[in-house]
Structure to design on (255 residues):
């Protein structure tokens, strides 16, 4: 059976809203034209695999379009919130290293980003591609129709458990960011303590001139030492992101 144009437009709305907000696919490094073509082709492939009833374009259809756009945005934003833990961890480390005043414009998001946060973000993207995480993201939007059917008029937006879930996701994001940054932040705290004792015992030493190179050098040494831990934390972050997307679909679907 050939699907109707109304079903295709609904699927295209959810897929486009998802691509606009989800990490990796939403970055400005990907041209807008290519993202639109990719969303159209992906929707065209999905329309033949999703069991959807025949729909007519009427007043109820407008509400379905709004629901599809909100659903795609919600799923993409919750994934972006979890991935923002990398930027937060980089901000923690840069503040302790003294790099906080050297924020640069991130070409992927267009916002100001800490130096190490941008480095971690680029590393996370490469790791995500290596682990086929982009396939898992596309699986997420495909399997969302199992939890939130295309003809469901209005999912569980505004429910108390949805708000609690978003708050828990925010808290978990900050917890993961703290776990990623705590080795370097704790080491730099000890370095600051040692520099303070040195400044009191050797007043002739200009601690401000000596302190910054020492902190930067120690930070890079700890970063190289803890590199495998950072990679492991990024893998855990990807698992949390996929779980958050699935749990959000279950909540919106009323499960």
């Amino acid at each position: 059976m050939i699907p109707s144009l109304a079903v295709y437009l609904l699927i295209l709305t959810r897929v486009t809203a998802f691509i606009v907000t989800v990490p990796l696919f939403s970055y400005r490094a990907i041209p807008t034209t290519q993202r639109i073509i990719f969303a159209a082709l992906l929707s065209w492939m999905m329309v033949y695999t999703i069991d959807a009833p025949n729909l007519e374009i009427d007043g109820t259809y407008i509400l379905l379009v709004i629901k599809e756009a909100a659903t795609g945005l919600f799923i993409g934003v919750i994934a972006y919130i979890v991935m923002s833990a990398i930027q937060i961890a980089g901000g923690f480390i840069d503040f302790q290293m003294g790099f906080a005043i050297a924020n640069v414009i991130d070409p992927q998001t267009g916002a100001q980003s800490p130096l190490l946060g941008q480095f971690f973000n680029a590393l996370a993207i490469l790791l995500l591609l290596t682990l086929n995480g982009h396939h898992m993201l596309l699986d997420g939007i495909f399997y969302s129709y199992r939890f939130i059917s295309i003809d469901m008029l209005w999912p569980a937006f505004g429910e108390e458990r949805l708000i609690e879930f978003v708050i828990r996701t925010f808290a978990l994001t900050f917890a993961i960011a703290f776990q990623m940054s705590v080795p370097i932040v704790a080491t730099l705290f000890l370095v600051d303590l040692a520099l303070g004792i040195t400044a009191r015992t050797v007043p002739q030493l200009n601690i401000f001139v000596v302190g910054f190179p020492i902190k930067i050098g120690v930070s890079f040494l700890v970063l190289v030492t803890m590199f495998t831990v950072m990679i492991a934390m990024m893998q855990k972050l990807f698992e949390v992101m996929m779980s958050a997307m699935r749990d959000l679909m279950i909540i919106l679907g009323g499960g």
Notes: DSSP finds eight helices and two strands in the chain. The CA atoms of residues 96 and 189 lie 8 Å apart.
